[in-house]
Amino acid sequence: MTSSSRSPSPPPEQRAEMGENYFQTARDINDLVLGHRIRSDYGDLHALTESIRLIGFVQPITITPTGAVVSGGRRLQAARALGLRTVDVWVRTDITSELELLLAEQQENENRKPYTRIEQARFFDQLRRIFAEDAALRQRATRFGAPPGAPESGAPAPSASGRRTHASERAAMVVTGRRSDYTLGHIVELLQLQADPHQSERVRRAVEEAISRIDPQGPVEPNYLRVKTVQDTEQLQLIAGDDSLPAATRDLAHRELQALPITGKPSQVREAARQALRRVTATEQSPPSGSTKVIDGRRQATIRIYSPRALTGMVAELDSWWLHYDPSEVAQTLTDEQWEQFTDWVQHTVRFLEEATRLRSAAA
């Protein structure tokens, strides 16, 4: 139960280290700042207030080092209604000073220069990760720390439609005030490509050009699609020039490249390139008769050893897949069989990467 007596923030020795980027402690409730971007219609707080009164915080409020609330506005309002003077908090230590200022804003500042799209995307990426981690911690806390049947005091506030928001949606709403998670996710993907030293010079130039057109307030989708078209086209060129591949595959890649439209709407050009790459990699991955073997008795899967070009094509197709799914939603909705298949896929991918990394280092 959270203490109701007024007390200053505890000294460092009273902190409980919870992970690499946060620790748990207690803070004076008056030290917490609830910025306008985190505020919302909190709905009926009665059940939450009763839960905190009876059992305390199942999940503490998440704040920045200076006290700006990141997640837990409903919990803070319920604690204030109870007259609590100190509250349990998780302090995130990995939040940039710029994001901290954004979260602490008390009202819309019409005189402040608007955030650029790149700044918004960086804020969004930080918040999305924090919200997803909070959701995972909340699940553990409610599963193992709360009495049976107790209300989930860490539950996110429902959206206007009555459906719970997810990490990406919540992050976008905080940063922009609207459902812009899809657009911001695309900018994040471009920033990741920009920072990736393994990208080709052609892709890097396309990314730099796209970002320069997007920032500060340019259109995102057409510039993002131009980069994806460059990636797909480059994969086709690599396949066409790979002498280790069958001649039929290389010839098909040449024909697909020649047939690609040079001009047109970015969405149409990108879709043409994507479908062309899919057709070429599909023929490359079609196993000839008698070339497969059973390697997994549980799933009876058959495999064939493909060329590295097929792998890069698959990676391009799944590029940044993790940006488009919410971990908390996946954790709650996958069946046991689907979860087993997903974890099996990830585990084998990690083992493959570790072995390839070892061999790459040995050859260097």
TrEMBL record:
<dbReference type="Pfam" id="PF02195">
    <property type="entry name" value="ParB_N"/>
</dbReference>
<feature type="region of interest" description="Disordered">
    <location>
        <begin position="143"/>
        <end position="166"/>
    </location>
</feature>
<dbReference type="InterPro" id="IPR050336">
    <property type="entry name" value="Chromosome_partition/occlusion"/>
</dbReference>
<dbReference type="GO" id="GO:0045881">
    <property type="term" value="P:positive regulation of sporulation resulting in formation of a cellular spore"/>
</dbReference>
<dbReference type="InterPro" id="IPR003115">
    <property type="entry name" value="ParB_N"/>
</dbReference>
<feature type="compositionally biased region" description="Low complexity">
    <location>
        <begin position="145"/>
        <end position="162"/>
    </location>
</feature>
<dbReference type="GO" id="GO:0007059">
    <property type="term" value="P:chromosome segregation"/>
</dbReference>
<protein>
    <recommendedName>
        <fullName>ParB-like N-terminal domain-containing protein</fullName>
    </recommendedName>
</protein>
<feature type="domain" description="ParB-like N-terminal">
    <location>
        <begin position="25"/>
        <end position="110"/>
    </location>
</feature>
<dbReference type="GO" id="GO:0005694">
    <property type="term" value="C:chromosome"/>
</dbReference>
<dbReference type="InterPro" id="IPR036086">
    <property type="entry name" value="ParB/Sulfiredoxin_sf"/>
</dbReference>
